[in-house]
Design a protein that fits this description.
Number of helices of chain B: 0
Radius of gyration of chain B: 13 Å
Shape of chain A: globular
Oligomer: heterodimer
Number of helices of chain A: 0
Number of strands of chain A: 11
Largest sheet of chain B: 6 strands, mixed
Structural class of chain B: mainly beta
Radius of gyration of chain A: 13 Å
Order of helices and strands of chain A: EEEEEEEEEEE
Amino acid sequence: KNEVEQSPQNLTAQEGEFITINCSYSVGISALHWLQQHPGGGIVSLFMLSSGKKKHGRLIATINIQEKHSSLHITASHPRDSAVYICAVGGADGLTFGKGTHLIIQP
Amino acid sequence: GAGVSQSPSNKVTEKGKDVELRCDPISGHTALYWYRQSLGQGLEFLIYFQGNSAPDKSGLPSDRFSAERTGGSVSTLTIQRTQQEDSAVYLCASSSGLAGGYNEQFFGPGTRLTVL
C-alpha cells in the first residue's frame, strides 16, 4: 500500500508570501493529484500530474517521479487561499490520500 | 451540466439503525468512487465501481457496509446496524474513462453522517 506523507501539517503565512507544500509517497505511481478543501466545503481537484510541472493561475504543481516527491506552490498568497490542501496518489483502484496541509493566510 | 450530487447532505441516526447514502455521478462518467472522511482523520478510500461492477470490496470497513450501482449511474452506500464510529463525511466522486487514479475525479459535496 502506498504511504503518502505531506508537510507541513499546518502552515500560517502572511498575505503575499510564497507558499510551498510538499508530498512524498512510497510506491511508484502513474498520477498524483492535488486537492483543495475549504472549511465546510467540498473537495476540488486542482491538479493531476504524472510528470514535470503544471501551472494554473497562481498555483504551480511539480512532480519528481524518480524521487517520489511533489510540491504545490502558491505565489502571491491571498486569504481566500486558506484551505486544506490534500495530496493523493493514483493506483489501480481509487486514491490514497495524505493527511492534508491546513493553510491559513492572514491579511 | 450538474456535478456530482449526494443525498442526503446530513443524516442523523440512532445506533443500530440502517442508513442509505446516495450518489448521482456526472452524466456519462463510468467510474464512481466512495470515500470517507472521519473527524480529524484523512480521506479513506472505500470502494469503486467501473460501470456497475465493484471488483474490489476490501476497502469497506466491515461487512455492515455494502454498495451497489445500477444502470451505470446512481450508486447507493448502505450501512447496516450503524455504530458511533461510522460517524463521518461520506464522499462520492466520479471520473470518465477507466477507474483508477489516472483520471481526474470530481467530488460531490458529501453526506455528513452522525450516529448517536
